[in-house]
Amino acid sequence: MTxxxxxxxxxxxAIIKAAEILKSGGLxxxxxxxxxxxxxxxxxxxxxxxxxxxxxxxxxxxLIVHFGDLKDVSETVQxxxxxxxxxxxxxxxxxxxVLPRLETAKxxxxxxxxxxxxxxxxxKHPVAREILKSCGxxxxxxxxxxxxxxxxxxxxxxxxxxxxxxxxxVAGGSSETGLESTVVDLTSDVPVVLRPGTITxxxxxxxxxxxxxxxxxxxxxxxxxxxxxxxxxYSPSVPLRMNAVDLYPGEALxxxxxxxxxxxxxxxxxxxxxEHSRRNLSEQSDLYEAAANLFQMLHELDRADHKGIAxxxxxxxxxxxxxxDRLRRASAS
Length: 333
Ligand code: TXA
Ligand code: MG
Prior knowledge:
Elements (H helix, E strand, L loop, with lengths): L7 E2 L2 H12 L4 E3 L6 E5 L3 H11 L8 E3 L3 H5 L6 H10 L4 E6 L16 E5 L4 H10 L3 E2 L14 H8 L5 E3 L11 E4 L6 E4 L5 H8 L4 E2 L25 E2 L4 E2 L3 E5 L7 E2 L13 E3 L6 H15 L6 E4 L7 H13 L2
Parallel strand pairs: 1-8, 2-8, 4-6, 5-9, 10-11, 12-17, 13-15, 14-16, 14-17
Antiparallel strand pairs: 2-3, 3-7, 4-7, 5-6, 9-10
Helix pairs in contact: 1-5, 8-9
The chain binds threonylcarbamoyladenylate and magnesium ion.
The site of threonylcarbamoyladenylate (TXA) has 27 residues, from strand 5, strand 6 and strand 10.
């Protein structure tokens, strides 16, 4: 673990400093409502290449480019009617659209990793918005973690994971929604959800008035449409076990709802676990609360003195679909 407290800053001065660093080709970790992003000037290919280097990210995995206003988005990608309807309904907010790149786009080719499309998002977090406004250019930003590891929902997670490879970490509190944005491909007639998030497939269908497709959780013979879908992701360093109805000795518990009936094999109950081995995503079984707590609690339970993390069953409905998607990837190391 690297200590980088001196690089963590907050407040209006940090926003100005962030914009200056980004302008001069540096990397800045930025708070967003989903997770913290590792930002670089999207127009600056050299700066963008540093993102891949620092994250150890495979170069075939494209990045999401963040914008402060819709006009700049429409000068970068080919917007269509559905994109305008969804932007109106959900932006600024935790949803990303994959659209055809315009030939005149100033965004570095590295952002799209050789694809003819680009993923674009307008974040809601006030600090992210202020930084984007001060920059005047779009910011490419994947989650601010080493590729394949848990996403960061707090400045401290970024400091622990990336250390001083980042030029500045702007602190903006815990990420509100706590899961990466919903990614939707809008390049064909029917939108396809490539990555589930807190804006659900049903939320999108309600706005559009028709059914859309699901492009994640595919059968082995289906070709993934998003390069990131092929990668195991979001892994803590200890094994994770889903749908646990009891515990093995040495395992930590990540509960959902009451853990009153969770026993430890060989004797004992959840209540006997020490404080650092027991977390509850939502005692009231609220899926939005669980999403917001997921990465924070996985970070807390990810300790070498745990043999593993056992997660109680999460209903696969609404936001539960996105939570289970992240848990499945975390358990498939
Ligand atoms: O909430 C979020 O989306 C966060 C914050 C920082 O905005 N960012 C984030 O970025 O999660 P990242 O790089 O960790 O995930 C981006 C996902 C990857 O699965 C990638 O494969 C997919 O979006 N993606 C990016 N560009 C794409 C494209 N042109 N076509 C298909 N998938 C794309
Ligand atoms: Mg990521």
